[in-house]
Amino acid sequence: MKTTSLISTLGLLTVLAFTTSATLAGTATKPAKPERIAFGQEVDITQYLVPGKTVVFDFTSEYCPPCRAIAPHLDQLHANRADVVVVKVDINREGHKGIDWESPVADQYKLRSIPHFKVYNPQGKLVAEGNAAREMVSAWFE
């Protein structure tokens, strides 16, 4: 009886440890829709890379008209391409009205304009950023 309880407890702890580490490390598989992260706070975007997938990080704000205009295209890209993951990095802190250029994440990535993209290849290497990344991603819309 005690051995069975100990084994069950160890099994539960193993599952909890795995779940916690997977949550802390970001998404290991492609989510059904683009994940929204940061909310103005600093974030290590590489924790959201999905092995074997091209990952597009879209630095965005709900107060940015070009960001809102491109969002449906990014959602469709994420939905239609099994090899591409879109992660939306919200630069606005909660309660901030307007584009939050002073947010910790905007400062961390030295953002001067949005939408701003970073594209990582399936091996986790940054392959394009800024205008080059925007051109790359926009070509995928066609």
What's the layout of helices and strands?
Elements: H1 2-24, E1 35-37, E2 54-60, H2 65-80, E3 84-90, H3 104-108, E4 116-120, E5 126-129, H4 130-141
Q: What labels describe this entry?
A:
2 domains, five-stranded mixed sheet, globular, 4 helices, 5 strands, alpha/beta, 142 residues, Glutaredoxin, 39% helix, 18% strand, single chain, disordered N terminus
Describe the fold and architecture:
This protein is of the alpha/beta class and 142 residues long. It has 2 domains: 1-28; 31-141, Glutaredoxin (3-Layer(aba) Sandwich). Helix content is 39%, strand content 18%. The chain has 4 helices and 5 strands; from the N terminus they run H-E-E-H-E-H-E-E-H. The protein has helices at 2-24, 65-80, 104-108, 130-141, and strands at 35-37, 54-60, 84-90, 116-120, 126-129. A 5-stranded mixed sheet has the order 1-3-2-4-5, covered by helices on one side. A hairpin with a 5-residue loop joins strand 4 (116-120) and strand 5 (126-129). The chain is globular, with a radius of gyration of 18 Å.
